[in-house]
Structure formats: structure tokens, C-alpha cells
Amino acid sequence: MKLIDLPQLGTKRLNALSESGIKSTLDLLNYFPHRYLDRTTITKIRELRDNSEEVTVVGRIKKIQQKGHGNKKRLEVIIQDDTASLKGVWFKGAHYIRKNLSEGEAVAFFGNVKKYGRYLSIAHPEYEKVSNTSDLSQLKQIMPIYPGNKSLAKTSTTSKLIHQWQKITLKHEKTPEFLPDSIRQSYSLPKRHESYRMIHFPESKSEYQKAFKRFKFEELFLFELSVAKSKHEIIDKHDAPVFEDLGNYTQRFFNTHLPFELTDGQKSALSDIKKDVRSGKQMNRLLQGDVGSGKTIVALGAILMALDNGYQAAFMAPTEILAEQHFRTLSNFLDPLDINIRLLVGNQKKTVRTDILTDLEGGSCDIVVGTHAVIQEQVNFYKLGLAIVDEQHRFGVKQRAEILKKGSHPHVLVMSATPIPRSLAMTLYSDLDISIIKDLPGGRKPVKTAVRHQKKHDEIYNFVEQELNKGGQAYVVYPLVEESEKMDLKDASAGFKKLKKRFSNHEVGLLHGQMKSEEKDAVMLQFINNEVQVLVSTTVIEVGVDVSNASLMIVEHAERFGLSQLHQLRGRIGRGERQSYCILIYGQKVSKEAQFRLRKMAETDDGFQIAEADLELRGPGDFLGTKQSGLPEFKVADIVEDQWILEQAKSEAWKIISNDFNLEQPKHQELKKVFTPYYKKKSKFYGMG
Ligand code: ADP
Ligand code: MG
């Protein structure tokens, strides 16, 4: 059957449907209601209360009248049942209602009741004429309401009309089951065809809820199947290096040179890694841990395992400054061991560079630290066994596939300091295993956070001065809004001038997004070396720079920052011996949501709690910052709300792929028909096809 065969459907409506993404009758079936009107209970008007839930009332029209003037102009339709009367009020579309309804007719109204003066009324009620008031069984349904849009409205393609079409479509369209029976039964998912019926013609609330669960499961299941399959295809089919021997370097370092006791989180991450690198399969692990949780040592542990087994390791950072910092840290730790570690960055002399490249290829260089370019450029390794990726933004599937191309299929450890709620991590990094470090190393003083109004600037600056006089350093951050970078630069520059005057006994530096990267690096280095004590900046310092002497983070217009951003900023301090302070300064016009964010910051420093709250406020797309976040889009499922369905779908999908990779078993034939085209599309999207 074609769409055009449906009644009351001509070319105009056909176009409107097409613009709404409905191009076939199957698309129509997949056009789901966004809410339901429960008309199964009819309430007597006398029993209605102000601000009630949605209700259904049935009565006869007593009067239709035009009221008010100008923008108060409205149409009132008064209905009466055997108990009392109520007004339906239309501010728009009065003409249409007048034509449709007449006094004396019986109608049903649906909507939320409000009380104005003595009168109960419903604004813009959904309504339906009642032909026989003694038999209301036709009326007593759960009515799906379909999402509308401009093109649908223009062609009067109403929710009611769509509902009528669904009835015919459901009869004609074949929707064979493709979920294996065993899965359907274990999660009590209704059959596919029955689910469409329950979505469009539910007999109860629990019916459409069950149906929605089925479609969410189906969507997430296909997604997880594709992830599982691509992981098996590009990763697991290669043999990876086996780090069997944890001898010389690893033992010596952890037993005699490690200057502190590992935290439980660090220990368990290391044991996860140990298992991975001995398995013969490539490790693909995400190490998540808040700033300062001590991920570097864990990475170093993995590196030593590689070295013990005669392999090289690469350590990649998002910027050169960070690469240099990692290089210094690692070199210090490795000092007592006889290990050749080199830094590879852009501004090195050609002779130095050639030298490093030669050593890497020849195998005399054990560890190379650099930017992400290390893996992409023509750098040849003698025997690369491990790649560590310290990520700032998402280091995607594509880049990880690049690493794979390096000869020996090295293990990959991705480190992230952005706490990501589990639901997001599961989809975003669905092909990675995850280790989380939740505890911070002992003996560190938690940052003290204060929220202050901007009229307290004098007091705040006095406090800053005290801290500077004691030898501390401070960040002062101004917000950056992309649309008006110039404007914000003005803020930061003005702040810079003001602070230069105020703190004339100290050096004040300025860092902003419009500076060249060498200029930025230069200022940053001055701050690292304590040649600058106050660093005024726009949010460019968000990246994981480590200045352990910095003990103050002053955020101007803190109300304009997102939660995760504030958390990242606060993570810049509290990294040393000194007690650190974060002062969040707010200005005028602070929204309810912004107040909530500031309160949350003062209340907790647990990155995962903050991330969960942020995700709830902003939703997954905005939480991750960009449209190119790599987050798959789901039509029915909501990865935050439906996390437990996601977990079920994931476990089933991965089971199937490990038992029947090509979906050859008879019970998987229907699934294969649906999955094959789905997977083709997906692989193209990830550039793996
Ligand atoms: P991040 O997770 O932000 O990369 P780092 O690895 O830079 O954290 O560690 C932060 C600081 O804590 C470093 O100075 C590091 O030497 C120190 N550190 C790491 N682990 C421990 C520990 N278990 N006990 C004490 N200090 C530790
Ligand atoms: Mg780090």
C-alpha cells in the first residue's frame, strides 16, 4: 500500500507528510504519538478542581459567544452537564470553532482546568462531538496525540486524521518480528506488530508503555549490535601483543621507586589493564578520573608493562604544552630506571627531530611523548605495543582505527578527565571498556568554594592579595561566548587593566583565544614558572594544565558557565600543598538554573555528581558541547532515561555477535534482514566501511 491510497490524502498532504519525514506507510506507522489523552474516565463538572490534571468532560453546548477586544478577544463555548457548567476558551482559530460547533450539541472537552473568578474553564480544549450521550464507549479511549508542525498544520493534517490513517495502515502493513523470541520473552517485549497496535490504539496506559519499551529496546539493540560487530571486525580479529612478563621495570618501579601508596582506584585500574594486555586481544580501555585522581601513574604502569616485554610506548596529549608537561613528569618518575624517553613536538630543530625518528624506528627510543600528531604523521616505530591518549576532546573511533594501522596492533588506553555519566559513556564509548578512578590521592586538601555577588569585588581582591603575598598564584577567568568573542575580549582586557593596577606588586598576565598559539604558550609558561602570579584569561585555560602552586580560581560572571565547565576550571587548583579557594562571582540577572548550578558547585566537588546534574540540565547533545560529539541519535530511546534498557540491549547484542557473528543461525534470519542495511549505513558514518 502507498500513502496516496489513504483517504483524504492528496498531493498537498503527501508533501506535508514527506516534509515531516513520512515517505511510506511504514514511516507513518513509525510516526509515534508524543503524548496521550486519557479519556477513559469522564469527570462531572462539579467535581473539577482548579489546576487539575488533564480531564474529560461531556456536556451540551449552552452558549457560544465572542468576548473581549484587541488581544483579549476570545471565543467562549459554555457547556453544561447534569451537575454544573464550564467554559471552553479559544484565543485563536475562533472562526473554525464557530463553524464546527453549534448551541444545543453534545461535546466532550479534554484539557487542564483553570478557575477564573467563579468560572471553571479550559483553554483551547481538544474536543469531540458526541452523537449519542447514552453510549459513550466510543469516546472512552486513550487518544494518541501526534506531533504537529507547520506543514502539517497548513494542510489541516490533524492528529485525528493521522490517527485514522494509522488504522488502515496497520491493517495493510506487514511488520514481521525480528527480535529473537528468547530475547523478547526474557524482557517481556510484545511482538512487533502488536506493539504498533499498542502505540497507536492502546487500550490502557500500560499497553503503550510496553510498546514504547519494545521500540526503545529494538533501537538500542540494533545500535549495540553494530558496535559489537564493528569491534569484532576491526579490533578483535587482529592479534595484539601479549605483555606476559611484568618483570624488571614494572616490579622495580612499583616496589622501590614509587614515592607514594596507590589509591584503590589506581590499583583496580592497573589490574584491569594487566588483564587486557595479557589477553591476546587488543586493549581498548577508557580510564576516567577527575583531575588530580592520578591517571598518569596508571598510564606509566601500562607503559612499563610494554617495555618489560620489549615493546615501545607512545604517549599523546592534545596540546604541546601538555605534552611537555607529561614529558617532564614521566622523565622524573623514570629517572632511576634506564629508559630512553623522548619528546616529539613541532618546534624542534630538524636534526633533533630526525634523531628521534631514527631512534624510534631503530628501537633505541622506548617512549615517545607528543601531540596526537605522533600517530597520524609518518612516524615509524620499531615495535609499538601501547598508545596512551590523553584526551581533551573526543578521540574518536576513526583516530583509534589509525592507531591500529601501526604495525603490531598496539593496545590503546584513553584517559579522560571529563567525568561522563555512565549512560553517556556507554553509548559514546560503547566500544571501549571503562575503568574509573573515583578516589583522590590522600592528603590533598579539598578546594574551598565560595559564591559571591559582584559588589563584593573589593573584599575578594583583598583576599586575593593576601594569598599572593603568601606566595600563591591566581587564575581570573572571564566567560567567552562564541557569538561575541570581541565583546568578551573587552571584558577580559578591561579586567586585565584593572587587576594590573590593583596588584601592582605582582605580575599580571593575559591569555585569550585570539592570541597566536606561541603567544599563548609563552604566557602560560610564565605562569608555570611563577614569573606571572595572576593570570587573567578567557576560558582557554580549561585544558589540563598543571600549575601546582596556583591556589585561587576566580570566575567572573560564573552564572554564564555550565556546570562541567566550572568543574573543569576548579580542577585547575588544589593540586599542591596549599589550601586552595574557588570564588564564583555572579552578576545581575541570575536565572533559576544558574542559581542551581552555583549552589551545586558549592555543595559538592564530586565530578560524577556534577556531570550527572549537568547532563540532566542540558541533555546529552549540549552536555558534550558540539553537534559533532559523535553521539548517536536515537529516535525513541533516551539514553539518559532508558539506561537500563540500554544495558539489557547491550548485553544481548554482544552475546549474539560473539556466538553468531554473521547472523547465520535460522533464528537470526529476520534480524539479519533488518540489521544488514542498518550496519552498512552505520559503518559509512564512522568511516570504517
Ligand atoms: P590526573 O589524573 O589529573 O592526570 P595526575 O596523574 O597528574 O592526575 O596526578 C596528580 C598528582 O597527584 C600528581 O602530582 C601525582 O604525582 C600525585 N599522585 C598520584 N597518585 C598519587 C597517590 N596515590 N598518592 C599521592 N599522590 C599521588
Ligand atoms: Mg593528567
Question: Which descriptors apply to this entry?
Answer:
single chain, 689 residues, OB fold (Dihydrolipoamide Acetyltransferase, E2P), Rossmann fold, 6-stranded parallel beta sheet, 42% helix, binds adenosine-5'-diphosphate, binds magnesium ion, isomerase, DNA repair, DNA recombination, helicase
Classified by CATH, the class of the domain at 248-437 is Alpha Beta
Structural class: alpha/beta
Q: Supply Rg.
A: 32 Å
The number of distinct β-strands equals: 21
Report, as a whole number of angstroms, the end-to-end distance. 34 Å
Would you kindly provide a written description of the structure presented here, covering whatever features stand out?
By secondary structure, the protein is α/β, with parallel strands linked by helices. Among the domains are: 41-140, Nucleic acid-binding proteins (OB fold (Dihydrolipoamide Acetyltransferase, E2P)), CATH 2.40.50.140; 248-437, 3-Layer(aba) Sandwich (Rossmann fold); 448-604, P-loop containing nucleotide triphosphate hydrolases (Rossmann fold, 3-Layer(aba) Sandwich). Helix content is 42%, strand content 18%. The chain has 24 helices and 21 strands. Strands 11-12-10-13-14-9-15 form a seven-stranded parallel beta sheet, sandwiched between helices. Strands 16-21-20-17-19-18 form a six-stranded parallel beta sheet, sandwiched between helices. Strands 2-3-4-6-5 form a five-stranded mixed barrel. Helix 7 crosses helix 8 (205-236), helix 8 packs across helix 24 (669-686) and helix 10 runs parallel beside helix 11 (295-308). The longest helix has 32 residues, at 205-236. It starts with 10 loop residues before the first helix and ends with a helix. The mean pLDDT is 88. It binds adenosine-5'-diphosphate (ADP) and magnesium ion. Residues 295-296, 544 line the site of magnesium ion.
